[in-house]
Amino acid sequence: MKRTDFQGELGRLHAASFGWALWCCDHQRDEAEEVLQTAYLKVAEGMASFDGKSSLQTWFFGVIRRTAWEQRRRRWLRDGILGRWFTSQPAPVPAPDPEASASMSERSRTLLQAMAALPARQREVLHLVFYQDLTVEEAARVLKISLGTARTHFARGKEQLRQRLGRREEKHDER
Q: Which of 2, 19, 31, 159 has the fewest beta carbons under 10 Å from its own?
């Protein structure tokens, strides 16, 4: 793929890439922006190179996921271990962003709460398939898991969501 075509395709994927970065960073906008910028730098500097074995989107989502994991690990080491070692006090828990909480609809909050209760791998597969429009096979490549494992997580995640959302609807109807 020519460099100009490659850059154009990455530009076309920017919105979806930012959405995936937000997801990988637990919806922390500043962190997601930093992760996405670092992922772009990795590509520009040749630290991550596209080999054509998957789609560009699948490959770049993998770069974003790995970058988010690296950043989270560095922050955990820096803030968690070193911070506690120096101060001998636990790090404060950040307060939820009231603007973001207020802007979400009840349905979105309910779905996000149900998704948050799922195991991490199921959440990741469901997010990639439902929000990023990837196939289960592409999600498996992004997450570096087998197709069978991805299908299992996808099916179990959907079933758990159905059950959780169904119980909430029943509670809502009882009011």
A: 2
Block residue for tokens 């990795």: 42
Element (H, E) at 74: helix 56-75
Query: Tens digit of pLDDT for each residue in 61-118?
Result: 999 999 999 988 888 777 766 665 555 555 566 666 666 665 566 777 788 888 888 9
Cα end-to-end distance, the chain, whole Å: 58
**Residues with Cβ < 8 Å from 141, sequence gap 6 or more?**
54, 58, 59, 62
At residue 145, φ and ψ (nearest 5 deg) are -130, 165
95 token code pair: 């307060």
List domains and CATH numbers for the chain: 1-94 (1.10.1740), 98-175 (1.10.10.10)
Structure tokens at 58: 């699948």
Tokens representing 63 are 């770069």
Long-range contacts from 4-9, C-beta under 8 angstroms, 24+ separation:
6/50, 6/56, 9/56
What's the CA gap between 68 and 83, in Å, rounded? 21
The DSSP call for residue 129 is H
